[in-house]
Known about the structure:
This protein is an alpha+beta fold and 410 residues long. The chain is built from 13 helices and twelve strands.
Amino acid sequence: MFDLDRWREIFQSMGKNKLRTILSGFTITFAIMLFTILLGMGNGLKNTFSSFFERDAENAIFIWPNRTTKAYKGFQSGRRIEFKNEDVDFIKENYPGQFTGLIRRNQRSMEVSYKNEKSNYQVIAVDPDIQFIEKASPVAGRFINQLDLNKKSKTIAIGRMVEKDLFPKGISAVGKYVNVGGLAFKVIGVFSDPGGDNEERFAYIPITTSQMIYGNNDKVDQINLLYNPDMSIEEAVAFGNKMRRDFKKRHNVAPTDQRGIRVLNRAEMAQGTGQVSGALDMIVIIISIGTLIAGIVGISNIMVYIVKERTKELGIRKALGAKPSSIITMILFEALFITSFAGYFGLLIGTGVLEFAAPRLEKYFIKDPSVDSGIIIFATILLMISGIIAGYLPARRAAKIKPIVALRDD
């Protein structure tokens, strides 16, 4: 129960021994503050790694041809590998059920204009599923669909920044015609992209239209696919490796040639990121535990010193009739109050430092450093328990000392 007299005694004791109280609180405050900052910065590094994968779908695989670096089966090194529509058919025939989206992609920089406004943009010829890889979302109109592909329509979906560059403020681009490399394309939609302004300066057209207009061929610069999300990371990595081997075999590229066929598998990147995040977690945990141990040792030493310093006071209290339990309780309550108050103060300082430094830390690849308050509360409780234990043992010994012996203590 709440005992007003006991708490009055505790505050009086703290007031008479300001230096002791300040040193005790500083040890806890510094430990919790440092723990909060280290944990927050570790989380900031993890957020930076995670942000690298936010722009595109997590289950994407990108395959593109390159020049060979090794002679193989009578072919000279330096041979340029080319993909065609039949390579997409090869994937459909050989990997049924292992992917949920398949996209051909051709990309070139072209001049796009509307009336007197013009600029160069990346015009990307694709299949409709590209919006699921790029995570593009229409903000007006629609995206390219299968009907556009079948009709080889001269339709175009433009990024939000393209509309902003070319069209007067307040004028929607949807339904208007823009000039793309000398040909008129109808704007069917405007999209936003989590990649930001750069990727919102892209424009997408049907790949069938591009293949018909620009070369009248079936060449494909890059093949993208979305592997089945039900796959585990290990299964997705194995799937990507198998595709790499099969494409090398299909195009007569040496198995040891690292450049002839390039495959970028997001599963491999996620696997690597998981390992890096795990290593970061381990480093932060070790450093944080070391910080807490230092705090525990500090508060323990201070509590021993506090009890030793107050031996005469405790002897007087016993001589006046104080029970050993009341003496022990008073010391423990004082330790509990100092530890909890100082721990909360350390948490406030640590989170304040993180919030203040967050904008400045981004250039050091630390994004949105933050910390779960539950972890900090747990650390504070741990220090509180350590302080109580550290204070209990000497307080128990002091409570057993006879008043005459305590009064003689130097």
